[in-house]
Each structure stands twice: as C-alpha cells, then as structure tokens.
Amino acid sequence: MTTKIRLIDEAGVLSQDEFNRLKSFVIDHCLCTTDDLAKLKHVKIRNDGASGYSGYWTAQFVVVDADVKEVTAAIILNSHYLKTVEQMERTLAHEFGHHWTLGYYMDRREMIGWFNEPAPRLYYRIRGLDPENFAKDYSKGWHYCDKEVLAEDYKHLFSPYSGDHRMKHLVGNPIFEVKDYIWNLGKPYWI
Amino acid sequence: MQEVTKEELKQLIEEAKKAGKDTSELEAEMERVARAEAPPMGQKKEKKEGERKIVIESTGPVKEEDFK
C-alpha cells in the first residue's frame, strides 16, 4: 500500500525510530484501505494536558442541500497521558476504529451526524447490545456509547491490541460475526 | 475518544514506569479523588458559509486547529 499516514509530532516526544514505527502502525498492523486512509488528514501528537482523554477522532464535512461532501478526519493523541509508543499505538488503534466505522457509515449514508442516531440494529443484534443500556451518544457514559464499543471491537479484532477490550466486563469480547460486519463496512456496498 | 478513567490512568503509569518515563504529573493526577468534570465527549460545531454548512463532529472536543 503506497498511501502513508501523515503523522505530526507537535509535542516533540518521539525519537526518529518511534516516529517511523507509529507512522506505519495502521498500514502494517491494522485493517485499512487506500480509501479510508485518503480521508484521514493527519494524526497529531499533542499535549492536551490533564483533559481526561488520551485521544480522540474528529471529522469535518460540508453539507450542501442534502448532500455531504469533503469529508476529512483527524486523530489527536494526547502525549500528557501517552508516554510510550505502545500506548500511542493502542489508542491509535481505537481511534482508527472510529475512522473506519464512522467513516464508512457516512459513505453508505447509514449515518449522518454520528451521535444523532444509534449504530444500526444489525450491529446491536450481533453484538448483543441492549438498547436500554447503550446509547447513540455519551449520555450514559463513555463505556455505554455504541460508537465506543464499535471502536473497541475494531481494536480487538483488527489490531495487535486484541486483549484489551474496555467493555469486555459489560458485553464480552466480539464474536466472528462482528468481525465480518466491521470488515464488510469497507467493501463497496453496491456489491 | 479514549476516556482516561482511574484504572486506565493506573495502567498508563505502570507501563510508562516500566519504560523508564517520568510519571510524576500522572501520579499527581492519580492522587486527586475525582476529576472536577468529565472530559468533553461528542462535541459538534456548525458554521454557515452561504449555501454551505461546515460541520465538525468529534468523539471528544471540537477544535478547528485539529484540521490545520
């Protein structure tokens, strides 16, 4: 794959070897394609202080009439909390999970406005999520947001950080049907 | 978005210590009983430019500089 991730170390915390390792992490070790990588503007390492988050995914898009265009996303890694390159990789795997899942939901027009609507019913069913307990947004807390379960599922299934699902105590680890579901999001939907 | 809970913070400190990193700031944070407020999650911002509506949605905070 020739597409590269643009990595910006604003915090200036990585050695050259660590920088090279993190820059190729998603391409070498996670599920990705040139399509989704093209929509990721960059990954920034920044010191956001004691903000309570170690990283986040954010996206910008333009709406004209009912049409959505110019979707671009960025991932921020907070070096205040992430002191080692392994910790950065683990958080990056989760954030790229948002990029994969929410990005393809947008492509497929299954979701426009990620926190206005819940993840599709099919996902709730195969993941065994109770709609009474899980929410489309953060109203019930981080662990109960369906988009966060999806991102952790991606990390568990498609990155080397598989033993670390943070909702395992609530819903167990994802089964093979969830793996197929997430994988298929990236396939052309007209096939 | 990855929320840093007390358990997560404990794990991050242990891992960083093993790697020989300075963890004093994180340990001071650990000492606090609880954070004053939850981190920003799921923020959204919209801006109209003529016919175009520019939307930023985030699993964490919305910051325009994230795209610069």
Tags for this model:
heterodimer; A: 191 residues; alpha/beta; 4-stranded mixed sheet; 7 helices; globular; B: 68 residues; alpha+beta; 2 domains; two-stranded antiparallel sheet; 2 helices; 3 strands; 22% strand
Please render the helix and strand layout as text.
The complex is a heterodimer of chains A (about 190) and B (about 70).
Chain A: E1 7-9, H1 16-29, H2 34-38, E2 40-46, E3 53-64, E4 67-78, H3 85-107, H4 121-127, H5 146-158, H6 168-171, H7 176-185
Parallel strand pairs in A: 1-2, 2-4
Antiparallel strand pairs in A: 3-4
Chain B: E1 2-3, H1 6-18, H2 24-31, E2 44-49, E3 52-58
Described by strand count, sense and barrel closure, the largest sheet of chain B is: 2 strands, antiparallel
What percent of the residues of chain B sit in helical stretches (DSSP H or I)?
25-40%
Query: In whole angstroms, how far apart are the ends of chain B?
Result: 20 Å
Kindly state the mean pLDDT of chain A as a whole number? Answer: 93
Query: Strand order, biggest sheet of chain A?
Result: 1-2-4-3
Structure write-up:
The complex is a heterodimer of chains A (191) and B (68). Chain A is an alpha/beta fold and 191 residues long. Helices cover 40% and strands 18% of the residues of chain A. In chain A, strands 1-2-4-3 form a 4-stranded mixed sheet. In chain A, strand 3 and strand 4 form a beta hairpin. With 68 residues, chain B is of the alpha+beta class. In chain B, 31% of the residues lie in helices and 22% in strands. Chain B has 2 helices and 3 strands. In chain B, strands 2-3 form a two-stranded antiparallel ribbon. Chains A and B meet through strand 3, strand 4, helix 3 and helix 5 of A and strand 1, helix 1, helix 2 and strand 3 of B. Strand 3 of chain A pairs antiparallel with strand 1 of chain B, so a sheet runs across the interface.
